[in-house]
## 1
Amino acid sequence: MRKQLLGERRDRNGRAVLPWRLAKGLLTLTLLLPPASPTATAVGDASSVPAAPGGPSLQFPASPSAAPESPLILMTDGPTCGGYQECLPQDRLERIPNLMGGFFARGGDATFPPVNGLATFTSTQLLFVDSFGSAVRFPSVAYSGPNGFSFTPPLNCPVTSLGPLAPFDPFMYFTRYGVVGSTYPLAQNQAFSGAVDAAFRGAQFVSGTATLEVPGVNQRDVPLGAGYSNSFVYQFGVSDKATILLPNPAGGGLAGRNDYFENGSALPRDRAYFYYSGVSDFAALGRDFNINRYTLGGEKTFCDGRASVEVRLPLAGTADPTQSVVGPVSGLDSFVLGNLGVLGKAALVRTDDFILTAGFGVSVPTAPDTRINSLSGAPLLEVNNDTVLLQPVVATAWAPTERLFVQGAAQFDIDAFGNPVYGADGNGGLTRLGRFMDQGYTYLHGGLGYWVYQDYAPEARLSGVALLTELSYIKSMGEGNQVVTDQATLAPLDGGVDDLNVTVGANVLLGDRASISAGVALPVGGPKPYDWVAQVQLNWYFGRWR
């Protein structure tokens, strides 16, 4: 049997154990030694305490305080930026910008039986009458009429007088007197009638009237005589049925529909946003005009960031939803509120570099009703905005590298209930004609982006710049329905929708809280409903760190 050494201790099984005092001394010596260079250590690994030369090394569990403050940050060895170690996001998806999209709005056709009525065009300034009462002249001043009509005739364009004028005073050769309110008939002026006919096809001259407004005007002060205002009356006779293009309240009038991937993505996010769309030469209502659209919105996540609810409201300077059955389109820069959109979405699959999301949205009626009025201003047709659009969505995003990212999305618009249509009842009121159902629409988006600049430093003002390119495709589904009555026929526009757009732009990350995207959408296929759309999108992020 081996002898027990001095100071040696053994357990009950006879195995040697380290004396407690010796173990305590070694531990104290080890803790006093300077530490070795740190190595990259993930949260949850053991921390090593190097030993003195020839001594044992002890292992201790990592302290909970060693974990990073944010679950999205991994501290690694590598180059430093601004005195900080480089911080790489564990979830590359968080930096992917939103899709930019384009713009989509559409109207409808309203067909009416023959329409007749009278309209009066009045000068905005005074008429001049010569001293001998043989002719009436009007200078180049504006004349106004229904639906925003205005016309400036040539200077001193003559109109032959059909009746006597105010008495002439031989003692004041250049002054003419008369009773205020005296009226005198006027003959047709061909230049003015030509302008009226160009704007209101089939217009026929009925009568003209000059009314004395200011007696005793000295010819030396006002060339060619006294102060008369004038008006001309024309009759509009539409011999055939009139087809009117009208804004469709199902799509928010001409403020545009809610496409949730205009400034949207597959990622649930905490954000407030504003974006602007400037639409050049939008083809609607029988002519081209510009639309300036502004959209306010916000999104809030829940379920630990795996789901979100978004609300958006478009507003636009666009065509007035109230138009006339005859005449030019009016109110092309009217302030119009669109329909409110609400979207809920949730991640079905999510990894560090991939996400698949599905959701469901609705657009509810906040846009104004659509009306078509007669020449007298009485309503001929009214489409009430009771819109409820059902809008299922599915979207995905993938970031295969630190710089490259790909996105895709699909949305479907379904007019679930339609909008009631009312027509004139002949007694100054309206009667219900039926319910107008719009077509359905499919929106497809695909985007590719690349980060040309990235800075992960906590103090960085400019933290990223990405170049973006997208394709957007819009396709109509089904035929909708028609409302056919004796008073009017209302139907979706002929031809359907088959539009392909390409968008190019850039996104700038400002620190870790804001981003700005700017780009241009160009139609490259289909009927090309506009020339181009300029877009600027601002997002401010809150809550969960980007």
Note: The chain has three domains: 9-89, 92-114+241-541, 116-237.
## 2
Amino acid sequence: MVTVGTSLADPVQWRVEDGGNGHWYEIRDNGGAALTWASAHSMAESLTYSGYDGHLASITSAAENKFVLDNLLDDDLHRAILIGAARVSGGTAWQWTDGGDWGYTNWNPGEPQLPKSTDACLAIFSNGALNGTGFLGGWHDVDLFAAYSDYGYLIEYGPPATGPVQWREEDGGNGHWYEIHSSIGVGLSWEIANASAESLGGHLASITSADENQFILANLLDDDPHTALFIGAVRANTASPWQWTDGEEWGFTYWDPGEPKNNTEDTRIVIFSNYALKIPSGADKLGGWNDLGVSGLYYFRGYIVEYTDREGPIASDVVISPNPVEAGTSAALVAMIDDTTTGESDIFSAEYSLDGGTTWAPMAPLDSSYDSPIEAVSASIDASDTPGVYELLVRGTDSAGNVGAEQPSFLVVYDPDGGFVTGGGWIDSEPGAYRPDATLEGKANFGFVSKYKKGASVPTGNTEFQFKAGGLNFHSTSYDWLVVNQNGSNAQFKGVGTINGLPNFKFMLWAGDGDPDTFRIKIWWEDDAEVEHVIYDNNMEQPIGAGSIVVHTK
């Protein structure tokens, strides 16, 4: 387990509206214990904040430097703060560990001073150093492997500079995804890289053709800060043939001049990255292959992960029965989870939520085991004792660890005492119903409850309507009136609500309880002249595709 030190204050954001990048920054203390750059690097990458992963900060502009000085360093009492820059011995260029462009610098007078034969990292002078030589925020280089008891480290939280890139089939590729993972300053062996790649749902990359090699050179290696990157090539010993760990056929090679050396322990392969070309006696060509020992720990190395599947499975055909359901009883939920068009991995699990995705409950495969890319799944839902319309979400996860998009539906819970109307299900929204773009069509989900409480002059309840193709999410905020046909065949009610959180939209809903059940909703807003501007209207009491509508009579 990584010990992450103590946060001295809440992270502060360099806001976009202030000219920043939207990232968050904080200084952490190591509690007086000796701190190396490698341990600070590992601790920073183990932390998250506001949904973002952390890393040692990259300071790439004068504006970013000023933000750090003004908001973090002025009152800091460490002698110096470690940040995310390093230089390999023999190299001439500094690199940011997150892959950011190196250009801006803020060296203290006389810095950098370590010889190029020393592995170096970067620290910045904090307020506590100003009783000596230096200025606030001035940079100085320090030994990468030395330990310092009076140092802290600066963490930056933000989205990654790059994510996995896809070699698309329409571009002649295999549809797989590739990304580089970093281990600059932290000892990395081929075995550690291989295990890490598999834990991420991928494998160390197999490069089996000139085209695949060119894709990796063009899209991953050119700006990479590592000296070399592990890939998925292995052999038992120097007399054995090379193999790819994923079983792909061995044939194409891209050896650097003089390689392979075929030393006794050289049974794994790395490829040279852009940074290696800057080091005297380094690589001869970008991406050239080099065989090396199986068990050694290497610094300034990374590894390429290849994913055959980066998309989550699709949840569909959600059916709740009965729906509406009486308060305090149960309903059956079934759905399909399908990965056949999004990677073809086996389904690993499925789950549902009744509180907007805050908590999730498991669903079970109907055939008793998750062992194929498409699964029918089910669950028994205990309905709330409180009547209302509950958004129900279903999603699946595949064996590659990809979580699919949430498929929404509505569970309507009703109290059977009194005259009221309840409904839940979906319709096929036809072209023309969604007025902002009349070409759109597809499934539209609905759920509603409307009733009069004893002695009330206006009805209460809730109505939800979602048309995913148009990004329309309507939520009622109040009702004006409700008319229930006491023969139990239809009901109609009117009210106001919000679209995607924006207020002052009116709506009318017609509900038919028959064979088949029917549904119509009209949503509009009115200008100062009370002219209607329709947003959605399916224009008829349309048979529903699934679910049910029940008009309850007194």
Note: The CA atoms of residues 273 and 450 lie 65 Å apart.
## 3
Amino acid sequence: MSPLLRELARVHRRLMQHAELREAAEACGLFNAGLSIGWDLVEPLQGGERYTPQSDGQPAVIIPVFEGGQLIDLVATSLATRRGLTRDGIASILGRDAIDHAMIYQTHLLLFQDPLTWLLNHGRGCVVLD
């Protein structure tokens, strides 16, 4: 199992085992995209684009980033600011496959301002991670 998948499993389990957090996530529609999201405490790394888990960090929703069906990175999204930080610094877009779909089928592309809004819209479209 890859380190990213192991981390995703850990934070997903953490969310699902905490009844109050799980119920809040369900009530807010964070499971709309059908992804195994999680919850963790994180701290931005120097440069401010990546994060690391930190026991005294800030709460964040952890969202997997897939490209071509492969897990390539994780995004920690602050509940306070809605800013997304990547775990490994690989992902630049959440929902990149939607871009390919829009180009192939010459259709509209939905672009969302942050990862939480993307989740609330069932993971359709994409988010540019900054």
Note: The longest strand covers residues 58-67.
